[in-house]
Amino acid sequence: MVDNQDNGIHIAIANLARGLHNSSLAGSDVDSVLESITAGAVEHVDGTMYAGILLVEKRKKKTQSVAASDPVVEKLDAIQMDVGEGPCLEAAWEHTTFRLDDFTTEKRFPKFIAEALAQTSIKSSLSFELYSNESSMGALNLFSDETNAFSLAAEETGLVYATHAALALYRAREKEHFTSALASRDVIGQAKGMIMERFNIDSLQAFELLRKLSQDSNTPIADIARQLVDTDHPSNKTSSGR
């Protein structure tokens, strides 16, 4: 019976991971993948009533609550930002998992716990590191109104799921960056062509002109190019998406 149950969990995770992988490769944007991650966690990690992702910008130490399955998750993230402590922040910063079984007896994160109990119905939580890179990091956070909602098996399932989710998010971001890079290259090419034709100069001279405009205005070359193209062809503003 236990073996069958374990097999069922592994099959569920495998199917969920496949869905995340497919969504990240099928043109889904990053926001859609983030929402798929939290929706999948609520559905597949036993004990989860609510889920969300907390993103942290390392240098500025700014945080952002995204893809929350319920407003209570955003409230909990806001509390952590206000008091400067909490399991979601720690999971991201310390690269580890935090399970809080009973908020009414929990001794860790006293400021967060006091506000969470005063402002929400949440009684237990489970937080995983989602990813970490040079500039930012994130945590996947699961919550329940019940005490002791998350078993050891749920923690193990969640950890495996968070790993697959991180891979799906990485693929989606890489795809988004690649698409953005291609769009920038195209618009720079258009701007260079306009400059070459208008001033009767070659490609290198046109790019040097763009580079100087970029430096003088402290504006990325792609943005300078886009402004030139949009000014010359106003109808391009809509198609450029900017």
TrEMBL record:
Q: Which InterPro entries match?
A: ANTAR, CheY-like_superfamily, GAF, GAF-like_dom_sf, GAF_ANTAR, WH-like_DNA-bd_sf
- Name the UniProt key words of this record, in alphabetical order: Kinase, Transcription, Transcription regulation, Transferase
What Gene3D superfamilies does the record point to? 3.30.450.40, Winged helix-like DNA-binding domain superfamily/Winged helix DNA-binding domain
Q: What is this protein called?
A: ANTAR domain-containing protein
According to the UniProt entry, its GO molecular function terms are: kinase activity; RNA binding
Pinpoint the ANTAR domain residues.
168-229
Pfam families given in the database record: ANTAR (PF03861), GAF_2 (PF13185)
Tell me the classification of the organism that encodes this protein.
Bacteria, Bacillati, Actinomycetota, Actinomycetes, Mycobacteriales
